[in-house]
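call fold(seq) -> tokens
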Amino acid sequence: MRNKLASSDQLEALRALAPALAATSGHDVGGGRFATGLASLDDHLGGGLGAASLHDLYAGAGGDAPAALGFALGLAWRAAQATGERRPLIWGLDEGSRREIGRPYGPGLAELGLDPERVLLVEVRDAAALLGVGEEALASPAVGAVVLGAWGESKVFSLTASRRLAMAARTAGRTLMLVRAGADPTPGAAETRWRVRAASSAPLEAGAPGHPAVEAALIRHRGGVAPRTWIMEWDREQRSFIAPPPLSGGLVSRPADRAGHASAPGEGLRRAG
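ret:
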């Protein structure tokens, strides 16, 4: 996992990397839709998520931030793969995210089936710099997809800023995942808006740890697709979201919006390092 530490020259450093990245990738512009791998979700969205789009993901509670980031990374990886070339992911994190949930761990990404060498980590001080990273990253045709992680409420995440990011994603033909924790959903220009929580995974054979699992609730879709909630697992071998194994007995499905739910401290996407 390549890392650029936070500094006053953060955006300049990212710009300087663009030529090197471009040397390893083509320059075609993506678009269309990309599949998550989970058939029920992809069918509900008419073939998957918009590739040339901004998608907002909100952690259900502070302890769900790792789950939300893991969900975003899985989606971004599949979006990048859909371009047909080995383009890297740009992963931007603000200081609040690093303070609350820690810095990313390369071996943990490998455990998820993702190549740490194809993830460029950009650490910044605040939300304003994070948005700048998103726009600069999307401006490079060599980037496969972008994930931005922010912590806490901020006026910087305005409707105008959301429109700028959405336009940058549409112009570049690339996917941008904006992950926010410790914040309530706000109006924006994203194609989809999600609330993500950690979910329990089923153990594998011989009691081995199960696949990472999340509960992802679609709470808004600009195309008018109805809200719905899915429990899904991440298959590291296939690099795909899959349906969890059926549970024995009759259980009542959990509602899409459980305002009273609170995750336990440290609860998150398992096996993320």
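The helical segments are 10-22, 39-44, 65-81, 95-101, 106-111, 127-138, 159-172.
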